[in-house]
């Protein structure tokens, strides 16, 4: 039984998974896959942030490393792709710019922005919040430790989706690497090797 909005024949359905992806982990991949399946998406494009303004107090790895880890993690899935639009845009990253650009690049396409329950709860603080809902349908996915509650967003503009719980966060992955603990099976194998090769998260 489809749970997504009405499927308009002839229009492509593109999922957009934005994130810092420092590093990308299996929680992100499972969330994207589950939404793609429930909403009958043709493709999900992962969009690593350039400079996430709400993480300005946190040290973020170089965009090129986060982009390459996202490419490695998604390479085997024909339904997944990765976009450079946020990391190639100058200045701070705002989702309104991401969606405007994707909208122009993809005519005859409905956009579905996939985000965690924690991020969705903050969406009214995002830049040009009202216009966001005219550009995409927003899908909030469950995340262990965060309650999936409707934060009073425009009716019809938001869906909430249960995804199989994976208690993984990028923060925890970085802390594990810094301590010398393994991240095998929390992130894809190629990402473990990339972190090792580039010596990411050591000494943090
Ligand atoms: N385990 C998970 N299950 C479901 N959604 C997740 C999970 N981890 C992250 N997300 C969602 O994916 C999106 C991108 O996440 P992000 O790149 O910030 O990863 P993160 O694990 O939240 O990172 P950090 O711990 O550094 O804040 C966010 O909307 C976030 O809520
Ligand atoms: O546009 C905004 O103002 C805005 C504020 C905070 C987060 N976002 C987007 O939400 C997505 C998840 O962000 P994060 O920080 O949880 O990785 C990512 O695509 C960010 O660009 C967007």
From TrEMBL:
<protein>
    <recommendedName>
        <fullName>Probable nicotinate-nucleotide adenylyltransferase</fullName>
        <ecNumber>2.7.7.18</ecNumber>
    </recommendedName>
</protein>
<dbReference type="GO" id="GO:0005524">
    <property type="term" value="F:ATP binding"/>
</dbReference>
<dbReference type="InterPro" id="IPR005248">
    <property type="entry name" value="NadD/NMNAT"/>
</dbReference>
<keyword id="KW-0520">NAD</keyword>
<comment type="function">
    <text>Catalyzes the reversible adenylation of nicotinate mononucleotide (NaMN) to nicotinic acid adenine dinucleotide (NaAD).</text>
</comment>
<comment type="similarity">
    <text>Belongs to the NadD family.</text>
</comment>
<keyword id="KW-0548">Nucleotidyltransferase</keyword>
<keyword id="KW-0067">ATP-binding</keyword>
<dbReference type="InterPro" id="IPR004821">
    <property type="entry name" value="Cyt_trans-like"/>
</dbReference>
<dbReference type="GO" id="GO:0004515">
    <property type="term" value="F:nicotinate-nucleotide adenylyltransferase activity"/>
</dbReference>
<comment type="pathway">
    <text>Cofactor biosynthesis; NAD(+) biosynthesis; deamido-NAD(+) from nicotinate D-ribonucleotide: step 1/1.</text>
</comment>
<dbReference type="GO" id="GO:0009435">
    <property type="term" value="P:NAD+ biosynthetic process"/>
</dbReference>
<keyword id="KW-0547">Nucleotide-binding</keyword>
<keyword id="KW-0808">Transferase</keyword>
<dbReference type="Pfam" id="PF01467">
    <property type="entry name" value="CTP_transf_like"/>
</dbReference>
<feature type="domain" description="Cytidyltransferase-like">
    <location>
        <begin position="16"/>
        <end position="176"/>
    </location>
</feature>
<keyword id="KW-0662">Pyridine nucleotide biosynthesis</keyword>
<dbReference type="InterPro" id="IPR014729">
    <property type="entry name" value="Rossmann-like_a/b/a_fold"/>
</dbReference>
